[in-house]
C-alpha cells in the first residue's frame, strides 16, 4: 500500500472492502488505525470499519495486536459492548475490523458539552460500563485502555417505550487476553516487560510502572472516570505523558468533596476504593464495583433503601474487594508510601526504554505505546463553569437543561460558560412548571416564583325533588288529603 491514508484518512473514502463494505466517511484516527462510517451493500446497514495503519501493517507485532483486538471483542457478547461483525485482509495488505455502528457521543464529549453530571446519572452510566467489563473479565479479557473517549453513550427505547441513555464500550486495541483452555491461537506475550500501554490520564499505577495488569487495572480507570464525570476535571494533569504517569504512581486522587458537596458518602468511598494505589485493596473485578454502584444509579425505592443501607456499611471507612464479602467490611483505606529508591528505579526504567525506543529500526512497535498523541494526552481543556443560584422556588425543585437534570433549587447549579442563552426548566410537585433563560457568562442569582396547581372543587350537583305523579282522575280521593 502507499500508506497515504495514515496522514490522509479521507483517501480511503469510497473504497469497498471485501466486496461488501463501502467506506463513507472517516470518523477519526488513533494510534492503531482509522475508523470509518461504512455501509453493508447487501443489508443496506451502517457499520463501523477500523482500518490498520499502513506502517503498522509492516510490523508482525502490530498485526498480531490488531488481530487480538478482533478476538478480544469477539470473545464475548454483552449489550454494553460494541459487537465485532467481521475481520479481514485485502489483497494489497490492508487489515480491517467491522463493528456495529454507534450513533452518539463519547463521555468526554458529553461532559464538554453539558458539564458535570448528577450522581445518579454518572453512577447509572458507569454501572453499565462495569457490567460490560465484568463480562470481559469473566472471559479473561482486560481492556487496559478504559477512558471517557472509549465509552460511547447512545439512546435506545426500553420495554416501556421510553428513550434511555445506553452505554457501549469500544476499542480493545491493547486488550490483554489471558490464557483460556479453549484457546487455539498462540499465547506468546505481545507486551514487553517494563513497557506501558494505555492513556496516562486513566492509567493504573502498575501499568505506569510497566508491571503486569489484570481486571483491577480496569477498575482503577473506572474509578477515575467516575471522578471525572462528577467533577468535570481530569484526575491528574501534567506537562507530558510521563509526568502524568508518575502522578498516577505517587499522587493520591484529590478528595471529590473538595469539588462538590452533594456527592454521597457511599459514592465517595466507591471511588476511593476503586482508585487505591494498591491493586490488592481495590475491587477484585468490575462486577464487584458494579454491584456497589447499582444502588446509586436509580430513584427506585428499593435502590434508595439499598443506598441507605450501603451508607451504614460504609461507616467503617472501608470496602472489601469482593462482592461476596460485603457483610465482612473492615479495615481502613490507606495509600502505601512510596520511597525514594523505588521512584529512582522507576525513572531509570523509563529512561532506559526511551533509549530503546530511539534505536528501534521500525520493524516493531515502540516499547512505550501511548494511545493518544502528545498534543492530545490530556484532551481538550475542560471549559470553565459558572454558578447560577436559583432562589424563590419551592424546596426540591428540579432544574433541567437540555433535557438533563442539572441540580435542585433553591440552591446553585453549574453551567458551562457560554455566550449563548441557556434555557432552564424548573419542575416541582404541586406547582406549574416554569422556565427561564440565562446567559452563563458569569455567576449570577436568579429569583423565580412558581404558581401552585389550584385544585377546583367539582361543581355542586343540586338535588331536585322528584316530581309528584299527577293524580289520575279515575283514582278515588284520599279522605286525609287536603
Features:
six-stranded antiparallel beta sheet; disordered C terminus; 482 residues; globular; Transferase(Phosphotransferase), domain 1; four-stranded antiparallel beta sheet; alpha+beta; 26% helix; Immunoglobulin-like; disordered N terminus; single chain; 3 domains; Phosphorylase Kinase, domain 1; 10 helices
Walk me through the topology.
Elements: E1 16-17, E2 21-29, E3 33-40, E4 45-52, H1 60-74, E5 84-89, E6 95-100, E7 105-106, H2 107-114, H3 119-138, E8 141-142, E9 151-157, E10 163-169, E11 176-177, E12 197-198, H4 205-208, H5 215-231, H6 241-250, H7 265-274, H8 286-293, H9 301-313, H10 340-358, E13 369-370, E14 385-391, E15 397-401, E16 404-409, E17 411-416, E18 422-427, E19 434-438, E20 444-447
Parallel strand pairs: 12-13, 14-20
Antiparallel strand pairs: 1-2, 2-3, 3-4, 4-6, 5-6, 7-9, 8-11, 9-10, 14-17, 15-16, 15-18, 18-19
Helix pairs in contact: 3-5, 3-8, 5-7
Commentary on this structure:
- This protein has helices spanning 60-74, 107-114, 119-138, 205-208, 215-231, 241-250, 265-274, 286-293, 301-313, 340-358; strands at 16-17, 21-29, 33-40, 45-52, 84-89, 95-100, 105-106, 141-142, 151-157, 163-169, 176-177, 197-198, 369-370, 385-391, 397-401, 404-409, 411-416, 422-427, 434-438, 444-447.
- The chain has 482 residues and is α+β, with helices and mostly antiparallel strands.
- The protein folds into three domains: 4-100, Phosphorylase Kinase, domain 1, CATH 3.30.200; 105-178 and 192-376, Transferase(Phosphotransferase) domain 1 (Transferase(Phosphotransferase), domain 1), CATH 1.10.510; 385-447, Immunoglobulin-like, CATH 2.60.40.
- The chain has a six-stranded antiparallel sheet with strand order 1-2-3-4-6-5, with helices on one face.
- A hairpin with a 5-residue loop joins strand 5 (84-89) and strand 6.
- The radius of gyration is 30 Å and the shape is globular.
